[in-house]
Amino acid sequence: MGRAPCCDKNSVKRGPWSPEEDAKLKAYIDHFGTGGNWIALPQKIGLKRCGKSCRLRWLNYLRPNIKHGGFSEEEDNIICSLYISIGSRWSVIAAQLPGRTDNDVKNYWNTRLKKKLLGRRKQSSFSRISSTNPDSNGVEDSSSSQALSNSALERLQLHMQLQNPISFFNNPALWPKLHPFQEKKLLQSLNESFSPLMQYAFPSPQQGDGQKVDTYRQLVDSDTRQQGHPKFSNSSVVGLENSLNGITSPDSYIPFSSGDHAMDLTIVSRAGVVEPADAAAQPVPNFQAEFENFLNSKTYGFASHEDKIGEFGCFKEMNGSWDGMNWRSNDFETKDSSNSWDSASVLQFEGMFQDYGLGYNV
DNA sequence: AACTCGGTCAACCGCCGGGTC
DNA sequence: GGACCCGGCGGTTGACCGAGT
Q: Matching PANTHER family, A to Z (predicted)?
């Protein structure tokens, strides 16, 4: 059953607000407040505006102490970290930024920060999914790819960039909730592209997922405790990233990048041909060898935890607080929800946020 | 000068959840 | 308990503007 509109669209004015309308609204609210009823407010003032429009105008523009534009680097940091943590909950993010509105933060993210962080190459990758889909033999394939939330993918990518990709890969609880078809495709892709690791790390196909995860987690945990971060070479990481990229791009694709801080990654085809050749050209033996070495507690060339963080301007100033910045999806996603990205309550968020112990005051 | 293109941002749309009757 | 109302929210749209050709 549809909901009745809050006002008659034919009788209300739409579009940009005039200075006179602004003055009327501001003067009234300054004197009498909103009266707790935005719907009735425009009639009281004599404005031919929808109550929602009045509310939006007040909150986003007329309200005292509103800041527009000129986001500081610190604000960038906050937005980045919170977006990775909780996604597109702009009102929650804006609440951490005095004088900023959710609309402002949302616009700023969509028009600037996202590009700054994710770079342009991914955009081309996304556009290719929606425009061409050689594997597609029907509507479902195409629509499913498109249905994969950009927000989820962005967070996935940011997380891959900022976190240990292996632990992410190995912990389904950290994955975004996908359409069943997308999930199937993801798992297929991971199996095809990453089976050597899976087989090596989890040799028994009879083992349950939980066991597999536990097995590997023990290995990782022991190393992480010593090193602060498990070590893998770039080629290994590329392999994993390629696996994930494979979800969205059926032929060749561009590995994850970090925008201005893009890693020197190569364009890899589905057939495993790497152009130009580098270590990833033979991902299987290389990775297996590396994993073997990893098991033997040897360290490889993957950038150190701190170095990795340092690649991202967004977090440069958060050194020292990174340890508290672990992906806490479990805090959110364990609750039953139809949309695991959105399942966290504000209270949960606040608790999590305290856990983060970020380098800024909240 | 005219046109195109891309970026920005204010405003709108529609859904959701809480409160009230 | 359920229908309805309203505020809040995130996603999207479209007007505007400046840079480039």
A: OS09G0431300 PROTEIN, TRANSCRIPTION FACTOR MYB36
Would residue A49 count as lying in a domain?
Answer: yes
Q: Answer yes or no: is pLDDT of A274 > 60.
A: no
Answer whether any strand C atom is within 7 A of the Cβ of A106: yes
Percentage above 90 pLDDT, chain A: 5
- Does this model's pTM top 0.85? My answer is no
Choose one of A111, A141, A165: the last residue of a domain.
Answer: A165
Distance, CA of A226 to CA of A186 (rounded, Å) = 32
Question: Which nucleotide lies closest to A88 by the C1' atom and the CA atom?
Answer: C10
Structure tokens at A253: 């694709």
A339-CA/B11-C1' distance, Å: 27
Write out the two tokens for A225: 């405790």
> Residue A98: its pLDDT value, please?
87
CA A304 – CA A323 distance, rounded (Å)? 13
| pLDDT per position as a tens digit, A128-156 | 333 334 333 333 333 333 334 456 666 66
- Rounded CA gap, A64 and A78, in Å? 22
Nucleotides of C under 7 A from a protein CB: 4-12, 15-16
Q: Tell me, in Å, how far CA of A50 is from C1' of B9?
A: 20
Residue A40 approaches strand C within 7 Å at CB:
yes
A37 touches strand C (CB under 7 A): yes
| A230 token code pair | 């498990």
Number of domains present in the structure of chain A: 2
Residues A87 and A108 in one domain: yes
Q: Are residues A92 and A159 in the same domain?
A: yes
Question: What is the C-alpha separation between A23 and A56, in angstroms, rounded?
Answer: 15
Q: The tokens of A289 are what?
A: 């060898």
Protein chain A, residues 17-46, with a C-beta closer than 7 Å to any atom of nucleic acid strand B: 17
Query: What is the rounded distance in angstroms from the CA atom of residue A274 to the CA atom of residue A266?
Result: 7
